[in-house]
UniProtKB/TrEMBL annotation, chain A:
Name the record gives this protein: Amino acid/amide ABC transporter membrane protein 1 (HAAT family)
This protein's UniProt keywords: Amino-acid transport, Cell membrane, Membrane, Transmembrane, Transmembrane helix, Transport
Protein family: Belongs to the binding-protein-dependent transport system permease family. LivHM subfamily.
GO biological process, any: amino acid transport
Any single Pfam family the record assigns to this protein: BPD_transp_2
Regions crossing the membrane: 12-40, 52-71, 77-97, 156-178, 212-233, 245-264, 276-296
Species annotation: Primorskyibacter sedentarius
From TrEMBL, chain B:
GO molecular function, one term: branched-chain amino acid transmembrane transporter activity
Lipid bilayer topology: Multi-pass membrane protein
Keyword Cell membrane set for record: yes
Taxonomic superkingdom: Bacteria
Record's protein name: Amino acid/amide ABC transporter membrane protein 2 (HAAT family)
Biological source species: Primorskyibacter sedentarius
Transmembrane region(s): 16-34, 46-68, 124-147, 154-173, 203-222, 243-270, 290-314, 326-351
Primary localization: membrane
Keywords carried by this UniProt record: Cell membrane, Membrane, Transmembrane, Transmembrane helix
Pfam families: BPD_transp_2
């Protein structure tokens, strides 16, 4: 199958395919980071995670329309404000959901799963009623359009680079929060031993609530970033939820590094196989491999040493 | 939660009343009251009840939440659909195709011969065997891989969900072999017997009801056997059961396979009654919906699962006929309400609220009767 191509064409194809894989990697990382906080640290299954992402995407959409209509002069910069708003909106909803639902269900993880699935159905219907069933797209600022010509055959889209930069910076931000801040220390203490954490005076209920809210907020930022590379529909979140959970579980719950490593391997495997096979078969093979590896190694790639 | 004593027979008198009531509703009241179209619709609901009963055993009793029961429902349904499709695509019926004698969707996808794994499904005996054997073999593989490694709880739920997603993508992607997103449609006859007529549908409804009762009694037997008590013990204190010398994984594998077999029977009956099978009954969304049927009925109650399935599906049909946008909100709210307020579903409400009052009322009546008798 390679005989039809010259060596330089092949190089270009692999470079482009690798880059497509990197964009997919950034998308996976963005999706999975929020979940890695909520599921990895708290052990809560949030099936509505996708809908928190979509909320961020819709906030971005609203702001882009607002800027285009009222302050077109600042339109090129609206995206940064949109990300902040997306974080606040999704985080606030997360806070509310934790207070109303999740805190009653910490001891019943399977029930949390069902309740958050119900929540996701409700949110989907609300999005559909408010924004319509059709997918909406965001107007991208001019500076993000187009692509950088690297050689005469390899071109790199700027919005792809932007999403990658975003993924890296949010990963670093989450890392700093988890491992360098007081809050992160408390979260990890609770994850290790809830009773002891309580005994040394950590407000575990409040930390739980903040952790859930921040995880949801990160999901909102991810949704905001998605608008740069695709359109948003009411059910878009549901399509991602299985991939995202697999990324987190495959990486080993509780390990941030594991999440990133598994996002990298899954995305690269999928985008490389997409070149040889049809898109759906590539996806089937990737997911199947992940499931098989998880059956052999249920604890995931990276594990924390914990005394349970 | 299980307060029943150890020496309980497999059907107590109270169970008998419950079963008799359900039998009266399914075999007498529905067929008398409903026109054939509606009866067929309720027959479709009852096929989901097979899945719900399996979930009561796996999830309510055994504590294993599978979010991939649609996989087994679908596999059973697809096995049956393959047989019916082959019968419907006889060379005479498909003479206009470029390759007569193969299913129409294969012809549309430029296949010129029947794939080898379709061949055995031209035999009815093999199909009946495969309806059960394929899903059970599949669930056995999953069960062995997961439970032997002590994977359980939410991890099991996530992985079964991923398997449902994988199978859906596979079926949709390989449309030349599976009929793709439309599924296997246009099924006509079973051994020359037209399954699309009203009389055939009514007969299939009764066959379905009978099979459902067989499954219910089997589930009841498992529930009241020593195995059922062990499952409950495992759900609540898995390690203690293991330390007592029981092989926990084997019991879990068994109950998971049993649930898969129930779901597969339901799927096959679905195909027969509704006349098609498609990937929209395999994926994540239908699989989780099936969990809510069991949850609404009461995750511990076998009879409750049937009532819950009937109620939720009836509400779904009624609501989505008149207010389609309300249905999703209602279903979402139902998920939350069942978890937050009624963890034991309808059966719990019945046992805690209705039954004590009913008993009090009956006792007062009998007391009143006892008081009046000596006076006479």
């Amino acid at each position: 199958m390679f005989s039809d191509y010259t060596a330089s064409e092949l190089g270009a194809i692999f470079a482009m395919q690798g880059f497509a894989g990197l964009i997919l990697f950034s998308v996976f990382v963005l999706m999975a980071l929020g979940l890695a906080i909520i599921f990895g640290q708290m052990g809560v299954i949030n099936m509505a995670h996708g809908e928190f992402m979509i909320l961020g995407a819709y906030v971005t959409y609203l702001l882009s329309n607002f800027f285009a209509d009222y302050i077109p002069a600042l339109f090129s910069m609206y995206f940064f404000l949109a990300m902040l708003c997306a974080f606040v909106a999704s985080g606030a909803l997360g806070l509310l959901v934790e207070w109303a639902l999740i805190r009653h269900l910490y001891k019943r993880p399977l029930d949390t799963l069902l309740a958050t699935w119900g929540l996701s159905l409700i949110l989907q219907q609300i999005y559909r009623s408010v924004f319509g069933a059709r997918e909406v797209g965001v107007t991208i600022p001019d500076w993000m359009m187009g692509s950088l010509p690297l050689t005469d055959m390899i071109e790199i889209p700027i919005n792809g680079i932007f999403v990658m930069v975003l993924a890296v910076s949010i990963s670093i931000a989450v890392y700093v929060m988890m491992y360098r801040s007081r809050w992160g220390q408390q979260v990890r203490a609770i994850n290790n031993n809830r009773q002891m954490a309580d005994a040394v005076g950590i407000n575990t209920a409040w930390t739980d609530r903040m952790t859930f809210a921040i995880g949801c907020g990160v999901a909102g930022v991810a949704g905001s970033a998605f608008t740069m590379i695709g359109s948003t529909g009411p059910t878009a979140g549901q399509q991602y939820i299985v991939d995202t959970f697999l990324v987190v579980v495959f990486g080993g719950a509780g390990s941030l590094l594991g999440t990133i490593a598994s996002a990298f391997s899954i995305s690269q495997a999928q985008s490389i196989m997409e070149f040889f096979l049809s898109g759906s078969m590539a996806k089937v093979l990737t997911l199947l491999t992940v499931v098989c590896i998880l059956m052999l190694r249920p604890q995931g790639l990276f594990t924390l040493k914990l005394r349970k | 939660m299980n307060t029943t004593s150890f020496k309980q027979s497999f059907l107590t008198p109270r169970d008998m009343i419950g079963y008799a009531l359900l039998a009266a509703v399914i075999f007498v009241i529905f067929p008398l009251l409903l026109e054939p179209f509606r009866l067929n619709l309720f027959g479709k609901y009852l096929t989901y009840a097979f899945v719900a009963v399996g979930l009561v055993l796996c999830w309510g009793v055994g504590g294993i939440l599978s979010l991939g029961q649609g996989v087994f429902f679908g596999l059973g349904g697809y096995c049956m659909a393959m047989f019916l499709k082959l019968e419907a695509s006889s060379p005479e019926n498909t003479a206009i195709q470029s390759t007569p004698g193969i299913p129409d969707f294969m012809d549309w996808n430029q296949l010129s011969a029947l794939p080898w794994w379709w061949e055995p499904f031209s035999s009815f005996g093999f199909t009946l065997f495969a309806v059960i054997a394929v899903p059970v073999a599949f669930s056995y593989i999953i069960g062995v891989a997961m439970f032997r490694r002590r994977v359980g709880g939410v991890y099991f739920a996530i992985i079964t969900q991923a398997i449902a997603a994988i199978l859906t993508i596979l079926i949709i992607g390989q449309q030349g072999f599976t009929g793709g997103v439309n599924g296997i449609t246009d099924l006509r006859t079973l051994h020359g017997w037209d399954i699309r007529t009203d009389s055939a549908k009514t007969l299939l409804y009764f066959v379905n009801g009978t099979l459902l009762f067989a499954v219910l009694l089997a589930a009841q037997f498992v529930r009241r056997s020593k195995l059922g008590r062990l499952l409950i013990a495992m759900r609540d204190q898995e390690d203690r059961v293991r330390f007592s010398g029981y092989d926990v994984a084997n019991f879990k594998i068994f109950v998971f396979c049993l649930g898969a077999a129930f779901a597969a029977i339901g799927g096959a009956m679905f195909t027969l009654q509704v006349g098609f099978m498609s990937p929209s009954f395999v994926g994540i969304v239908p699989s989780i919906e099936m969990v809510i049927f069991a949850a609404v009925g009461g995750r511990l109650s076998i009879l409750g699962a049937v009532w819950g399935t009937l109620l939720v599906n009836w509400a779904k049909t009624t609501l989505s006929e008149s207010f389609p946008e309300l249905w999703l909100l209602g279903l979402g709210a139902l998920f939350i309400a069942v978890v937050m307020a009624f963890p034991n579903g309808l059966a719990g409400v019945w046992a805690e609220q209705v039954e004590p009052r009913l008993m009090k009322l009956l006792r007062r009546d009998s007391k009143a009767a006892a008081q009046t008798t000596p006076a006479e």
